[in-house]
Specification:
three-stranded antiparallel β-sheet; 3 helices; four-stranded antiparallel β-sheet
Length: about 290
């Protein structure tokens, strides 16, 4: 074979080898591209599964806030924990592990159905609860109305009781105070007063309860000191000193009362005040001026 034919054959062989090599490289690159594309799709599929697992776990958490049923909440807790465990497994699995991905995809489908059943159950419970709330609101409205009626009646009763109490209070009228000297005569000067005689009338009151009454008389000097021996009575939640006390039998008719105070101290001229109390009420007041 001459040299020229050998060169031609060699050239053809080289071209065929190059073509074959090029085809092999092209096929390898094509295959690599397809594998990379499949890997990207697998990764995207895995991320979608992770997002769905996470969304299911979040839904379980939200559903627990919508109900007030300990048993159902415990079931939701259990399913949420299982979902989170499967999510943790999925995150550890490689996208290329087809068997594990398929298993976890089946688990995801099962979880999806379970979640739907709980959504339906909670929705039914919420509808029942809404109906109960509506009925409860009606009951509350009726209760409020009844309570308001009772309150109004109580207020009317209290008002009536207050009016009766006010009407039944005793009233001291015609209060007088005379200072007597040592001879039992009316003293012209305050320095000569040895005894104060306080007189008044408990007015007629048919609404007042008949029975024994303690009448307290306070005589206040011009400097606001009370003429007292230390005795006290209760008035408006505090103890007040009194000058004289007298127990009377009151039957609803006008009753005259006279009390005495023996003076054993220096008296200054000025205005003296007499206050009368009974049953915890101030029933009369009067002022007397001694200018000498």
């Amino acid at each position: 074979m001459d040299k020229k034919k050998i060169i031609i054959i060699a050239s053809v062989v080289v071209l065929l080898l190059c073509a074959g090599l090029g085809y092999m490289v092209y096929s390898y690159m094509q295959e690599s591209a397809e594998k990379e594309e499949m890997l990207k799709l697998a990764e995207m599929d895995k991320r979608e599964m992770e997002n769905e697992y996470a969304r299911f776990a979040q839904q379980y958490s939200e559903m627990k806030t919508q109900i007030n049923n300990d048993s159902l909440i415990a079931q939701l807790d259990k399913e949420q924990q299982r979902t989170e465990e499967l999510l943790a497994e999925l995150k550890k699995v490689k996208a290329t592990d087809a068997a594990e991905i398929m298993r976890l995809k089946k688990e995801l489908a099962t979880l999806r159905n379970i979640l739907k059943s709980y959504v339906h159950e909670i929705d039914s419970l919420n509808r029942v609860n809404e109906q109960l709330r509506s009925e409860n609101q009606q009951v509350k409205a009726q209760y409020t109305q009844a309570t308001q009626t009772i309150t109004n009646l109580s207020t009317e009763k209290e008002t009536l009781s207050e009016k009766v109490a006010i009407a039944s209070q005793l009233d001291a009228t015609g209060i007088s105070m005379v200072g007597q000297n040592k001879r039992g005569k009316k003293a012209r000067k305050v320095k000569d007063v040895k005894k104060f005689v306080v007189s008044f009338v408990i007015a007629r009151n048919i609404t007042a309860q008949a029975g024994n009454r303690s009448i307290y008389v306070r005589i206040t000097k011009p400097n606001n000191e009370v003429l007292t021996n230390g005795g006290t009575f209760v008035y408006e939640n505090r103890n007040l000193e009194y000058s004289a006390k007298k127990d009377i039998e009151y039957n609803g008719e006008a009753t005259s009362v006279t009390v005495y105070w023996d003076v054993n101290e220096f008296l200054s001229k000025g205005t003296y005040r007499v206050s009368v109390f009974a049953d915890g009420h101030n029933i009369g007041n009067a002022s007397f001026n001694y200018e000498k």
